[in-house]
Write a structure and sequence with these properties.
The protein is mainly alpha-helical. 49% of the residues lie in helices and 9% in strands. A hairpin with a 2-residue loop joins strand 6 (299-301) and strand 7. 24% of the residues are buried.
Length: 327
Amino acid sequence: MDVHQMQTPYQATVLRTDVNRAIPSMIPYILEESNMAITEAFEALVYLVLSSVLGGKKEPLKHIVPFLQRLRATDDGLKEADEPLVAQFLLRASLPNEPLEGVATRLLNINFGSIHTSSIFITQTLFELALLTRAELDSIREEVLEALNSEGDWTKVALLKFKKLDSALREVGRYYGLMHFALPRITVLGHDLPDGTRIPPGHRLAIDIKAIHYNAEVYPDPDRCDLFRFSKLRDDAEGTTSKYGFATPDNNYLPFGAGRHACAGRFFAAMELKIMLAHILLKYDISFPPGVVDRPANIVFNGAIVPDVKAHLVFTPRTPALRSESH
């Protein structure tokens, strides 16, 4: 993110307001894209990612800037559209006389920040789902189908009823997370901690996320990844249970950060991840290749935690009798 974007970060406001409000209308498009992308990926013999060749922003800007020019030039380009576009929201919020390259770069940064983290979350979750018993997987499928049948379609309310999938995602965020540290900051003022440690101004600091996420006083048996940890807490809780949600940060759950700087796109991420995982579970059985009994070890570099990019999973199409053809 360049200095210009850091000084006027309206893209974060767009995510917190326009994009979050548009989530219900985005669900059909995310579902359609999920269906197409997953089907094509599983049918392809070879799938190559050429980011190493076409990396950086120069190449994508060649395509995004003309698209933004066309969108801005159309009579209804800045009005409400049938299909909500993040690009449209950014254009609407852009600064006076801001070049389209600046708006396009903001869009690229949103894409970068969302795609790699969502990819990590869904991969880690699939690895963990592959370790579950058939009965446990079927219980997730049954909850998904019950939610879809009760709401009549893939809607925001239906997704909120995917409590077991939501629990799986939150537990993956607790157990693995994205980094070994959280809430990186630069101190503006000095501060003395209760134990006498002095934090001088102008220094970088962060929180050891494992000390938070593996606190046995908060999370019993913290060294075990229990995908149903938070759905069981919801079942036992009285009153509101939203605090156990995947996209709800608190002092003991920090993969999305905390406070007013918490990830602005976390609700969108939760929506797309639950759609993709539900779609996969309804249409495929998931397993590791023969002979593999443990999930692949993560790769750690510079504090980042990434699933093994060379690991394999087996996706076996489920027969029509075992899944709902209407969804």
